[in-house]
């Protein structure tokens, strides 16, 4: 009688970075599909353009640094950075805005710090924040009007021509303020009912955006199911956003209501795909909870009292600053050892 | 302290010990006002003037001021020269003075100036001290101008805008606009752009230094092995 014996530590096959990143890309595809369905071809064109620029600039820096080019490019991380930027930039963002965002993300935020694994900040969000600060007009006036793909005015050719023309702003009739932007600027002088009558809100919460966010939520749940990301960051992120909204946002005539917070902006993309970047996020599970909760709280603070309608990029970057601090105070327990010492307290058992 | 030759002082100020690129002193004005070339030149010239004056004055009084009161004395001297610079700018380039605002009086706090006074002028004769002040000031000025040029070009798509504020009406049409329809890139106009720009300049300087060093190494003939006798055992008692 033979038993199949496995020796400890029961190691299973390690998942290489390239596979992990490939899964992230696949899980983001439903969101991209929803974006294309409701906001036209812009995001799809942006994604292709951003990935191309990301690969090209990564290859250029690797060549300058005399590193193996194809070996590093195959880990798919540059492609993911490009993809995330393509998903989050406005649909009619001119080609040079995307290019500046991607190049600064890859060259400054990632490679100048030493490449994959050494960057303290989320590269995609550095690129996004940089263009948001640099080109406020191009970044706020180029959001597509939500409508089903087959009903939309600009077809694939027109969208491509608009992006390639490099004009700061697209045709007025094709664009519309984002729901969070609209709400933020109108609510000071209107009641919630009047604000929600604007076509960008549709008859649900935020026309088109709700489906995009739902698709990213679904993709994110797949990632959690596959154990590519752990549940800690998204749950803490969304949980703290919900708590903040319930605590401060009960009056819809003052601040955007909870459904808009969850389904109208970049919330789901941020919670499952951006905040969970393994390099720039906190390491231990406890640290991840603090990190995610910090992002959720900051998003609510900036959306409600700050100058910007959405705040995923700024919140993620601000919490990236805090990550070394969080990691210092939340070291995980090493197997076979006592509970780890916290912070500077020193002494004690070890 | 070994005295330095003039060429060493010049090399130190402009390159080897450049106040902005190597000592990284005086960052506050450097980051704050280098958004255009004209601002950079204005502040750079004022700093250069103060640095030369203070170095000369400190060197002249170096044998009469005790160790314990030297720093207050240096600061008084620097403050006097900054006041002179401020009054001169008010008289001749009033608009530029208003743009630079608080950063002119703040030259007093520029560590590069106090640093040179203490590290060099207080230990050297007036001649070398004046030369050191001029070279350190020039090194600072050059970095300011380059950074101002980069930030102006990328930030607003122009070069030498508003030069008439400093040089009078003859410079009013010096402005160069290389790109038509340039969208302003606010990031480079704001302080973060200065941080990134200065970081890249420092990296470039270090890169050039390393390149020179490596080239020198290859030029030198390799040491021939085996030509020397080396003691390998025992102790010399």
Task: Characterise the protein shown here.
The complex is a heterodimer of chains A (350) and B (237). Chain A is mainly alpha-helical. Helix content of chain A is 59%, strand content 0%. In chain A, helix 6 crosses helix 16 and helix 15 runs antiparallel to helix 16 (312-329). Chain A is globular. By secondary structure, chain B is mainly alpha-helical. Chain B has one domain. Chain B has 10 helices and no strands. Chain B is flat. Classes of the chains: A mainly alpha (350), B mainly alpha (237). At the A-B interface, helix 5, helix 6 and helix 7 of A face helix 9 of B.
Give the secondary structure arrangement, pairings included:
The complex is a heterodimer of chains A (350) and B (237).
Chain A (H helix, E strand, L loop, with lengths): L16 H23 L2 H23 L4 H5 L3 H12 L6 H17 L11 H12 L1 H5 L15 H10 L13 H8 L5 H5 L12 H17 L6 H17 L9 H6 L3 H8 L10 H21 L6 H18 L21
Chain B lengths: L5 H11 L10 H7 L3 H24 L9 H23 L1 H7 L10 H9 L6 H31 L7 H4 L18 H4 L1 H29 L18
């Amino acid at each position: 009688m033979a038993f199949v014996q496995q020796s400890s530590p029961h190691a299973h096959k390690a998942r290489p970075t390239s596979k992990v990143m490939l899964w992230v890309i696949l899980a983001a595809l439903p969101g991209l599909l929803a974006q294309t369905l409701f906001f036209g071809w812009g995001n799809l064109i942006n994604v292709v353009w951003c990935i191309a620029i990301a690969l090209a600039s990564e290859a250029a820096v690797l060549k300058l640094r005399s590193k193996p080019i194809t070996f590093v490019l195959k880990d798919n991380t540059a492609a993911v950075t490009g993809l995330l930027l393509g998903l989050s930039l406005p649909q009619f963002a001119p080609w040079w805005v995307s290019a500046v965002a991607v190049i600064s993300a890859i060259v400054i935020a990632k490679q100048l710090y030493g490449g994959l694994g050494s960057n303290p900040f989320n590269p995609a969000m550095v690129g996004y924040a940089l263009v948001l600060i640099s080109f406020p007009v191009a970044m706020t006036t180029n959001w597509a009007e939500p409508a089903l793909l087959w009903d939309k005015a600009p077809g694939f050719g027109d969208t491509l021509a608009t992006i390639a023309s490099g004009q700061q702003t697209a045709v007025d009739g094709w664009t519309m303020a984002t729901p969070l932007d609209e709400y933020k600027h109108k609510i000071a002088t209107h009641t919630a009912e009047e604000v929600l009558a604007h076509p960008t809100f549709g008859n649900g919460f935020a026309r088109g955006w709700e489906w995009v966010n739902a698709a990213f939520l679904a993709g994110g749940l797949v990632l959690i199911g596959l154990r590519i990301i752990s549940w800690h960051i998204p749950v803490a992120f969304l949980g703290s956003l919900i708590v903040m909204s319930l605590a401060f946002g009960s009056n819809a005539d003052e601040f955007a209501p909870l459904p808009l917070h969850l389904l109208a902006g970049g919330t789901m993309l941020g919670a499952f795909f951006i905040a969970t970047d393994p390099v720039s996020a906190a390491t231990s599970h406890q640290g991840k909870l603090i990190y995610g909760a910090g992002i959720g709280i900051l998003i609510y603070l900036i959306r409600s009292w700050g100058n910007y309608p959405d705040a995923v990029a700024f919140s993620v970057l601000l919490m990236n600053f805090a990550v070394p601090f969080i990691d210092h105070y939340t070291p995980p327990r090493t197997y076979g050892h006592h509970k780890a010492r916290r912070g500077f307290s020193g002494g004690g058992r070890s | 302290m070994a005295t330095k030759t003039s060429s060493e002082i010049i090399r130190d100020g402009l390159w080897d010990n450049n106040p902005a690129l190597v000592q990284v002193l005086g960052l506050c004005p450097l980051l704050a006002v280098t958004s255009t070339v004209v601002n950079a030149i204005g502040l750079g010239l004022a700093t250069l003037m103060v640095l030369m004056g203070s170095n000369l004055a400190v060197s002249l009084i170096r044998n009469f001021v005790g160790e314990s009161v030297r720093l207050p004395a240096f600061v008084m001297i620097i403050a006097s020269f900054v006041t002179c610079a401020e009054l001169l700018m008010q008289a001749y380039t009033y608009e530029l003075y208003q743009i630079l605002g608080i950063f002119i009086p703040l030259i007093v706090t520029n560590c590069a100036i106090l640093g040179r006074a203490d590290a060099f002028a207080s230990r050297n004769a007036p001649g070398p001290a004046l030369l050191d002040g001029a070279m350190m000031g020039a090194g600072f000025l050059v970095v300011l101008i380059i950074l101002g040029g980069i930030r102006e070009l990328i930030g607003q798509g122009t070069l030498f805008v508003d030069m008439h504020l400093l040089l009078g009406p003859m410079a009013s049409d010096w402005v160069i606009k290389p790109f038509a329809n340039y969208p302003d890139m606010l990031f480079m106009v704001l302080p973060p752009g200065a941080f990134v720009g200065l970081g890249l300049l420092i990296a470039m300087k270090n890169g050039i230094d390393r390149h020179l060093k490596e080239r020198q190494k290859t030029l030198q003939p390799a040491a021939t092995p085996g030509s020397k006798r080396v003691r390998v055992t025992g102790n010399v008692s």
